[in-house]
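Notes from hallway chat w/ T.B., transcribed later so I don't forget. T.B. wanted the structure written out for a chain they're using in a teaching module, and asked if we could keep both sequence and structure tokens in one place. Agreed to drop them here.
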Amino acid sequence: MSTSSASNRRFEQAIVGFFIILPPIGGLVVLYQALHNLPKFGMTLLWLAYLVALVGAHIKWVRPKFRRYPWVATYKEFSERSKPLKARHPKLVRKALNHRILRSAYRFAFAAALVPFFWGMNSLHHAHFWWFFGMWLIAGFGITIGYHRVGTHPSFKTSPVMRAIFFGMGAVAIQGLPGEWMKKHSKHHAFGETTADVHSPYVFEESKRAIFMEQFNGFMHSFVMWAFREPSLRRPKGMTIEQWKEDLLSKSPDPATFKYRPEDRDHWEVRNAQGEIVVSTETLIKKRWARFVDVIVGIEQDSVVTLMSNPVLYFGILIASFAIPYYLGGISIWESLARATFVNWVTFCVNSVCHLWGETPFEVPDNSRNNAVIEILALGEGGHNTHHKSELWAQHGVFGWQFDPSAIVIKSLRAVGLARDLNLPTRQQIVMAWLKWRVREPDMQGIPLRPRDIVGKAVASVEAKKEEPVGV
């Protein structure tokens, strides 16, 4: 390893060590302080239990009901599309309208049910709660929108100033320099669920799949330990872009040691009808690696990413994220570290939990899943299976039952002229994926497949040509 690479590696380990080791210590200090006022601590736990019960009830009982309808039109679009059907199918139109109104009523009712929680936490913790909540949103959206949806995957366009603001917000999350974050995440998409994946939770030695510790170690690797093990992708000092690109191209994964899940074989071997290999794994690896190198070279050449990846600027923003709450709100460094624990560990769950448990409405070359709990905690990033279906979709919660506040923020920016050219799935893509999912898993949510679901395929296909990107 060169001196420059070793320096890069030490820098990354220092960052990772900071947000792995110090935040839990901060959380314990906050807990210790809370135990000095047991009545206040007990009421806090009760309000948190109320929130968990409310969200749990939604996920357990209400969300499955909404899965019957994958796509939800706006009232304006509903009115336009229902006009030609009113005369022939008045009952159908009325039933659909009642469902739309019911969804709106439920959303208002759920929002109203959240008010007591915020009132209770405000009564107990005042500004301390709002600083925690606000900094969680700033850091969270900085990662989901900045580092991820406009940085790694240009799913929409915005000005360099807005991109810099979002990257600065992402720095508050303490997840490392934006350039390095984006490059490693690109590698995850290029080689998901293989030995070349940055943080796959799977063990590839068949003999060890049933051993608990191996499974545990696989999970811990995907959760956090990968950050210590994955080599740096920063360009060494003194090396030109062209030299760096040539060096990267020479380091593609070795086909002899390259492994993937047996279920994904069709994605890494192309065979004809006779079962003969037409395109080998080695060829596919080289093609995928070449595309990956082009992506990270593009990230390296991005002037905004380069600016916001300057260690001095990064640490300046990081220090400010602790100092400002301290001076303006009396927020201790331990409280800020507890907030950092929450934000980072939720992100770790996207890398691990969302590759183990959840829904798979889209067929993708890995085991990425949509997880309802992570959708909420990670501000929409829990729609991981949807994201792996199309990296460039600005919306990960594309179905009517999903939660994606990051997409709401992006669409709000578009409404005020700060975002443009949003890459969104079409209604036909959403409905067709839902229908295929129903066919693939007939017992999905316990709902039997009905004839009109099959008819829906034909309807969706007919409308495909006139379809425009829409949101949910």
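Follow-up for T.B.: The chain has a mean pLDDT of 84. Might be a good example for the class.
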